[in-house]
Every structure is written in structure tokens, then in C-alpha cells.
Amino acid sequence: MEESKGRVCVTGGTGFIGSWIIKNLLQDGYSVNTTVRSNPEQKRDISFLTNLPGASQNLQIFNADLSNPGSFSAAIEGCIGVFHVATPMDFELQEPEEVVTKRTIDGALGILKACLNNSNTVKRVIYTSSSSAVLYHNSSGKDYDSEEVVLNEDFWSDVNYLRASKVDGWSYSVSKTLTEKAVLEFGEQNGLDVVTLVPTFVLGPFICPKLPSSVLASLSLAFGDEGPFGWLLQAPMVHVDDVARAHIFLLEHPNPKGRYNCSSSLVTVETISQVVSSKYPECQLSMIDKLKQIEGTKLQDLSSKKLIDAGFVFEYGLEEMVDGAIRCCKEKGYM
Ligand SMILES: NC(=O)c1ccc[n+]([C@@H]2O[C@H](COP(=O)([O-])OP(=O)(O)OC[C@H]3O[C@@H](n4cnc5c(N)ncnc54)[C@H](OP(=O)(O)O)[C@@H]3O)[C@@H](O)[C@H]2O)c1
């Protein structure tokens, strides 16, 4: 058997993106430590991870929770790289924003401290940020107003605007913005190699049992339901496999720096509805009819030029995103 490329840690292995990164890492020949939240009352089924090809030899599962920032140390020990993917997803606002944001930042800094303590092995941390940390700003903001503006890595969401406007997903967006800033600052101040990947709405197939919130949000463009980000009329999207590959690309790149946007398609209600109805004629699409009555949100695209210039190649288009997502929704009984 081929020798391992080294051991890496992925936080949030039970999630949509975390589990797909683990699948790809195992395929690529890495050994993987992943963290999951313990759930003693209902023992959770993580066989979708332990049954992955290569998992029996090369996947180790650890319990850790962002509420206990020190709990990630054991999973990070001996790793050459850490992918910090886990984050609270509280779109229903069950907890106050400040509580969620504090947990997210403290948890991330706890992970970075553990990386610093293991700096003899840990060479780089890749933090999964989000376009939520980029897209939201005061609509009178000068730079964002123009349709032609290219949202590169210089743009950040305005936390004061998010807290005041309470747009859909605002609490999550605040926590993503402040956490990305905190991890980049920690890296600079402590000489730790920290880079961030900034994906837009992630769509595609999924191996986790839960219906991913971004699959729900993205397909809501076609099905006319209000998703976790409200009524979306236009949104930037990217395939889950491109996102997982971009994480690994940043680990393997000789010298990445700072943030990297990761987006491949600007999708409208019309384009996604066309793709769904041509491949799945049995699906009932009501969105186009509703369109005239709804004042929905149109989100801008992010420029992925920096990632592409660094050598990354996107492999998937909208058809594959929709096809993979609908196939998995049907297989798992969500449709
Ligand atoms: N999906 C997208 O469109 C998208 C776009 C841009 C960025 N992102 C980012 O990508 C990452 C993964 O998102 P996802 O879509 O894969 O979401 P997901 O499926 O909901 O996964 C979130 C993961 O975080 C874990 N988690 C939540 N709270 C935690 C806590 N207190 N301590 C430890 N782990 C905790 C969850 O564990 P449980 O299973 O125990 O809940 C789960 O494994 C997030 O950082 C998100 O901000 C996602």
C-alpha cells in the first residue's frame, strides 16, 4: 500500500463539507483525524464516515466541541495540517448572536493555540470562512453599489450593518466575519501559517445524513420555498467537490497567503429552474410564477481570480451541482 501523505485534522466531520473533505483526503492518501460532537443521549450514527474507503486504516474520530476550546488538542497532535471547518449553524436564532459569535471565535482560537503548541508538526491551518463574511454591507456603501464591482478578497461584510439590518442569516454572517478576522490576526501575531477559504453557496451531492442547509437554500431558488437566507433570486454557488479540492489545494500549495474566494457560478432563479426542469421533469417548479410577486434578494458573485491564478481549476458546473444534490435528496428521502 502507498505510504500516507501525512496526518491531517478536519473539525466538523459530521457536516456536509467536512465529510466531503475527509472522503477526498482519504482518497488522496492522507491519514485523517476528525472531530465530532459527542451526543451521549442519542448515540449518533457516523457509519457514513467509518465506512468510507480507507477509513478503517486511516480515519480516527475524536470528540471535541467549540464550547470547550481546549477539547481539540488530542485530534491535532501529530498532524501536519488542520482544516477548521466546524461552525454553529443557528439560522433559527435559538441563541443570541453574541453567544454564538463568542463560541465560534473562542473555539477557533483554541484550535489555533493547539496548532501553535504542535508547531513542530502542524505546518498550516486552513479555516473555512464564507461569502457571508464578504457580501453584506450597507447598501449606500460606495464600493459595493456598482453592478460591475469585482468582489475580491479585500471586501468584508459590515458587522454593524448586519446587526442593525438583521437580514436573513445575519447572526451566522456576523460570526463568520468576526471569526475569519480573528483567525487571520492570530496567525499574523503568532507566526502561524493560517489561510482562509471563502466559499459561496455550496451545492452538490452529500454523504452526511442531514440535509445540508446550503442545499436547501440553493434549491429553494428552483422550488420557490423560502430557505435559510430568505427568498433568493440570484446567488453565487460552487460544487462541494470543488470546495473540498480547494481546501486540499491550499494545504499542498507551497506558499498561500491570506484569503481565497471560492465560487464558480452566479445562479439565477431562471437558470437553476431550467436545469432542474430539463433533468427532472417530475419536479414541480413554482418559482418562476411566484417571481413577479416576490421581492427577493440578489447576491453578487465573488471573484475567484486569486485562487485560479494560484493554479486551482474548478471542475464542475451548475448541472453537476443540481444533479448531485437532487440525486442525494431523493436517495435519502428528502424529495
Ligand atoms: N454550505 C455552504 O454553503 C457553506 C458556504 C460557505 C462556507 N461554509 C462553511 O463551511 C463550514 C461547514 O459548513 P456545512 O455547510 O458543512 O455545515 P454543516 O453540515 O451544518 O456542518 C457544520 C459542522 O459543524 C459542527 N458544529 C456545529 N457546532 C459545533 C460546536 N459547537 N462544536 C463542534 N462542532 C460543531 C457540526 O456538528 P454536528 O453534526 O454535531 O452539528 C457539523 O459537523 C462552516 O464553517 C460554514 O460556515 C459553508
UniProtKB/TrEMBL annotation:
Native source organism of the sequence: Stylosanthes scabra
Keywords: NADP, Oxidoreductase
Protein name: NAD-dependent epimerase/dehydratase domain-containing protein
NAD-dependent epimerase/dehydratase domain residues: 8-261
InterPro entries given in the database record: Epimerase_deHydtase, NAD(P)-bd_dom_sf, NAD(P)_dehydrat-like
